[in-house]
Amino acid sequence: MSNKNDRFHQLMDQLELEGILLTSFENIRYLTGFSGSNALVYVTRQDTFLWTDQRYEIQSQQQSPQCKIDISREAIKQFNAKKIKETLTGKVGFESDSLTVSEFDFYKSAAGSVEWIPLGNEILQIRAVKTSEEIVLLKEAIRRADCAFSKVLPYVKEGISEVELKVELEYLMAKEGHEGAAFGTIVAFGERAALPHAIPTARKLKRGEMALIDFGLNYEGYMSDMTRTIKFGPIANEESTIFDLTLNALEASIDAVASGVKLSDLDEIHRSLFRKAGVEKYSLRGLGHGVGLQIHEYPRVVEKGPGALEENMVFTIEPGLYFPDRYGVRIEDIVLVDSSGCEVLTQTPREICLG
Fold this sequence. Notes:
There is one protein chain. By secondary structure, the protein is an alpha+beta fold. It folds into 2 domains: about 1-130, Creatine Amidinohydrolase, Chain A, domain 1, CATH 3.40.350.10; about 130-355, CATH 3.90.230.10. It is built from 10 helices and 20 strands. The strands form 6 sheets. It has a 6-stranded mixed beta sheet with strand order 4-3-2-1-5-6, sandwiched between helices. It has a 4-stranded mixed beta sheet with strand order 8-9-12-20, with helices on one face. The protein has a 3-stranded antiparallel beta sheet with strand order 7-10-11. Helix 7 (about 130-150) crosses helix 8 (about 160-175) and helix 9 (about 235-255) packs antiparallel against helix 10 (about 265-275). It is elongated and about 70 Å long.
């Protein structure tokens, strides 16, 4: 906890702030551990204030005992206005990306003479470098996802529909214990795998085609994310070649991960392989993204993207190729940047042949 507070204190020193007002669910949970749906948090160099309503009186005390908690016993909007007026002074940072115009106008009116400093990427960059406690939770989320996936493979049979396989996988994830799916599970067979974010349908699996499955679970607030493209029965030579190319792109990218590597340089590794094979136009813009309390976080490994890898960043590597109305392949692992390069956290085999 102190490690996270120190990061916010350093940001306050850097920007000469009196405090930072947190309004988004993810940033509040990151700093305080509180997972209720209605709260404001104000952090200063001395204290962290948490304001919420009566529904969360016990929960806030259990999850955030280190905070100065105040519980609303009146209309929450009036309560928040009063606390902001009483507590905020000087230069205050705020989450400019998570507030509507009307919400910001409300806080601005309540605070009076406060000077508001917008914070965008600064907090995302704080969260990008994981603490040891966060890494433990992410590893457990990934372990449980791996386990659920291994148990769903017997259901991958001719005639099962995309929706049916999605339901089975989400049930198995629930049995592993989690707070819910990290995002809408993607199951796409055959030509529908060319849709990178396909919504599962009644389309049934046939022999001789590939099945793309992209899923994750939420364990104590932390997300896993994995994609596997299963070969179901003998597949065409072209599809097999594209699968091997995608797998090579994943492995080459993982081999290049190290602290200090530019994000754009890492993205270029898979792009150059696709370019040499003449299929770059069938790929997407990015290679991967950070994971944590949100399924898409910093760092963003994209073409010409700014920034570089740092030790203890956790992110996906997910090269993919998508041929409209024909087929698609994506293979995705999560890696942790460490002192020797990286640790691959996803343990499920990358090449799976069934049927």
